[in-house]
């Protein structure tokens, strides 16, 4: 741009330079705020992900504990049935009814 421009054209070029400089200043003012906001959002996202992961692991542990409890209940029921089978027949009938009612299975 070493050329000498006519005054009219020089005024246009000066206006464009001022406008571009204004855009550059605005951009350099906004970039740190954008970076700060973006980093804050990323940190918030990470925290929410950790909370969700923790909730998932807790519910998974609950389900596993529930399954273990059911297995123990089933093994207790099997042990009870085995004890009933070793009883005399007149006592076994009433015990079987009691066990089935207790476990939620009803005899017709």
UniProtKB/TrEMBL annotation:
Its main location: nucleus. It is found in: Nucleus speckle. GO terms for cellular component: nuclear speck. GO terms for molecular function: transcription coactivator activity. Residues 7-66 form the Neurogenic mastermind-like N-terminal domain. The keyword Transcription regulation applies. GO terms for biological process: positive regulation of transcription of Notch receptor target. InterPro entries: MAML1-3 (IPR046369), MAML_N_sf (IPR046370), Mastermind-like_N (IPR019082). The keyword Protein transport does not apply. Keywords: Activator, Notch signaling pathway, Nucleus, Transcription, Transcription regulation. Belongs to the mastermind family. This is Neurogenic mastermind-like N-terminal domain-containing protein.
